Amino acid sequence: MSVVLYHSPMSAYCRSVLLVAKAVGVPLDRRIINVFENEQFKPEFVAINPQHTVPTLVDGDLVLWESRAILTYLVGRYGKDKTLYPDDVKVRAKVDALLYFDCGTLMQRWKAVVVPLMGGSTHTPSPESLKQLHEALSWLETMLIRHKGKFAAGTEDPTVADFALVAGMSSYEACGFFQAETYPVLGAWLERCKKVMPGYQEMAGDDAAKFAELMRSKMNKA
Ligand SMILES: N[C@@H](CCC(=O)N[C@@H](CS)C(=O)NCC(=O)O)C(=O)O
After folding, report:
1. Index of the ligand 1 atom closest to the CA of residue 66
2. Which of 12, 4, 67 is nearest to 31 (CA)?
3. Cα 181 to Cα 150: distance, rounded to the nearest angstrom
4. Pocket of ligand 1 (CB under 6 A)
5. Are residues 65 and 120 located together in one domain of the fold?
6. How far is it, in rounded angstroms, from Cα 117 to Cα 109?
7. Which residues constitute the domain of residue 46?
8. How many separate domains does the chain show?
9. Digitized pLDDT (tens) for each residue of the chain, 222 residues in all
10. Considering the domain boundaries, does residue 109 fall inside one?
11. Within a domain: residue 83?
């Protein structure tokens, strides 16, 4: 039975799932939900995920949404080893902390920047939202300085935390909100991730570029 992923190529959350699925080697039956056309509200999709969000994974009788839960599930179920989500309790705690930081802080601040650009009335991010995003990026830079040359949780190999963070970073970078000169350690980490994550360009870089193009076209129409 195939593993089905409902996703939108425009969504950073979905990119993290595509990257981790590729890393663990599980083929996905990909079904696109175009959130810009409100396809997530179709009754047949709401019947699967009442919260109508992508990514949503269906693996047999398991239906799962929330991208970071999907990442850890894929590693537990299909990973050949635990490198991507280590068993060591302290390392796993650091990975989890980064996943919560990504979900609860960084991506929330990104949403505050990008939602007005995509659909709001002003088509410009507020100075306060940009300040908040850069504050979160500078925290991430500081965390990475502590693990210089390693991955985000201080490991030699990437973990699901790197995959979750990199998916968001692909958007910030493509949209021009992240410059490596401002965050040199974060920039070096991003380049390392791009090199070691199989299919980065195809699964994240290209779609982030399309997202940035869409965002700019909306801004130009404003
Ligand atoms: N915390 C969720 C957020 C998912 C999410 O908000 N996805 C957006 C696309 S980027 C979506 O599905 N929006 C449609 C909707 O909420 O109706 C995750 O990490 O999966």
Report:
1. 20
2. 4
3. 19
4. 8, 11, 13, 35, 40, 52-55, 65-67, 103
5. no
6. 13
7. 3-78
8. 2
9. 899 999 999 999 999 999 999 999 999 999 999 999 999 999 999 999 999 999 999 999 999 999 999 999 999 999 999 999 999 999 999 999 999 999 999 999 999 999 888 876 667 889 999 999 999 999 999 999 999 889 999 999 999 999 999 999 999 999 999 999 999 999 999 999 999 999 999 999 999 999 999 888 877 665
10. yes
11. no
